[in-house]
Every structure is written in C-alpha cells, then in structure tokens.
Amino acid sequence: MGSAQSLDAYSMETRAAPESRRADAELVEGYLSGSSVSPLLLCGDALEILRSVPDESIDCCMTSPPYWKKRQYACEGIGQESTAAEYVRNLLEITGEIKRALKPAGSFWLNVGDTYQDKSLQSIPWRIAIEMTDSQGWILRNTVVWNKVKGNPDNSADKLRNMYEPVFHFVKCKKYYYDVDSARNPPSKAEVRDGRAVSSTGVSGVRYRKQIEGSSVLSAEQKESAVRELDRALEDMREGRLFDFRMIIKGQQRATHSDSESVSGRAKELNRNGFYILRNNPSGSKPGDVWNIVPEDTQNRGGHYAAYPEELCLNPIKMTCPKEGVVLDPFCGTGTTMKAAMGLGRKSIGIDVSSEYIRLSEGRVDGKQSV
Description:
Layout: E1 5-6, H1 17-33, E2 40-43, H2 46-50, E3 58-63, H3 84-101, E4 102-111, E5 116-117, E6 120-121, H4 124-136, E7 139-147, E8 164-171, E9 191-193, E10 196-198, H5 206-213, H6 220-238, E11 245-249, H7 265-273, E12 275-279, E13 290-292, H8 310-320, E14 326-329, H9 336-343, E15 347-352, H10 355-365
Parallel strand pairs: 1-2, 2-15, 3-4, 3-14, 7-13, 14-15
Antiparallel strand pairs: 4-8, 5-6, 7-8, 9-10, 11-12
Helix pairs in contact: 3-4, 5-6, 8-9
C-alpha cells in the first residue's frame, strides 16, 4: 500500500503560521485528490493544521484527545490546562474546526475519559458533549460504553474500579451516511429438529400457538390470522429466510415500546390485529451501545501510554465512512485510527504535536513496528 506520508520536515517550531498553513493545505489538498490509502501524517498543533483542511472534505473523524490532568505525554499541549473549564474550551476549538471540515453526511466519534479532582469526578466527557450540542449545534446520536473488560488495578478503598469510557457519536446534520449492515453481527442460524424449526434462542412457536388457541381476548378471525402468520414465520425459519422472531399477542405480551396508541404504532397494530411479529434481520443483529473491547497491551505501546485499541475504530469507520471516504484523527498518537482506516481501504489524515509519535505512526502503518 506504500509508505505513510508525513510532514515531519516542517516542525511547529520552524514554521511561521501563514507559511506552515499554506504548506499543510497543499499537502492535504494533494492527498485528498490522490488515490493512495496510505495515511497522510502531519506533525504540529492540531488546531492550526485543522484550519488548513478544506471545508466539508472529511467523511469521518475519530479521535481520543489527551485526557485532562491524566497523563504526561511526549509534548506539552492540550490536557495540561489548569482548570477543567479551560480544557473544555480548548477542545471546543478543535471540535469546531472538525465540524467545519466534515461533510454534511459526516460523523465524529469522540473517546474521552474522566478525571478526579479533590475526590470528585469532574464529568469531563459530558461537559464536552453538552457544550458541543448546546454551543456548536452537534447532534449526539449515541453514547457508546466502551467496556474495557479488564480495567487497570485500583487500590482505592472508597470507590469502584473504573471499567469503561464513553465514545460519543456526533453528526452535524440529521441525514448522514450510515451503513449499519457493514457492522452487523453474524446471525445464529435456526435448526430443524424432528421436522420443527427452532431458533438459536429457542423459539419454536409451540408456546405462541398455545397462547393464541387459549386466548379469551382474540376474536376467531384474529386467531386464524395469528396462526397463519405464525406458520409463515416458522416456514421462513425452516427454509433459512429467517433466523429468529418474536410474537406479541394481545393479552399475553405487552407492546414493544408503549401500550399507548398515541405514541406507539405497534400498540395500534396490536389492538387492531390482536398480534404482531418482530422478525430479526436476516443479515444479523446490529451492534449495541456497549462494546466489550480489551485495551491495548501495555507491552505493545512503545513510547505512548494511552493508545486505544484498533478494534475500537473498526465499526465506526465501517459504518460512517464510505469506502472512497477519508478518515481524520487530529490526535493520532501512534496511528491506531490510521492503521484501522488503511486496513479497511479508507484514506486517512493523522495529526499529532509530537514528532516522536508521528515516527511511531509511520512505522506502525508501514508494518515496521508494533505499538
């Protein structure tokens, strides 16, 4: 796939702002117009380099900025502010530039952890998310809980061990690119036992049939219709067109979301027909909002102490960046986002203030170094 391109020769310290921005802009525009999926890596201040990215040119941004007062990174910069409010303000400058650079159909995935101060959690992730929605007009579509499965040891005697971090999914417009089918979990196929179809969760239709036949709520016509649709669902399972389903029967199960017809179309259907069937998607279930992903092995982090795992990037990129699209990470660290994007055939631009991290990223995406 070729080698990663970088701007290491143009360091922050040696460039005047207008000249550096012109150089960055030329590199970015050249990269965007090219066909290579090898990442473009730029060394410098995230805010300054972001200002050189053309309007509405990025399909997907995924990043994890330095956490406030959490770690000492290779270079001074964001995360070392004296107050949480200042940290949030500085990050909002970054997110404002990201919003400008995103296409109308673009998405922004933000992973950020919390910090204790004076024994109290500072709610840093939510301060950022609320400011982004209230002050910058972002739309928050999901809060993913990244369950780290094996959190770090914690010897505190008066609080629980931290096991998760949030990953926020923001969009700038109500209509945006989203390919959920690309990330569906493979379905568990139904089995045929003694001529009877049984789903992986044990649905065979026997209980539903008894409930229909014994119902004192359904009319004779509704019972006949319910049995007919139940048989159709079971036949679809037997023939491999359906892997699982649920049947909601009036007087037996409640409507899926609400019993009120004013807020639930399913409640209307239940009252009108006496039943409805929920068919599982034959392509599999879509991902939920809790992701069980083990953090990077500490022995494989090189000189970086907070690399997030490549697996965390895969579904966001697959779902919200088209195959010909471009991924951006303004705090790319050791290049995890870039490596994931390149592996999925997407172009990517990574920015980091540390030349050391840029070199680690170059080695990682070129396959020369494990970080």
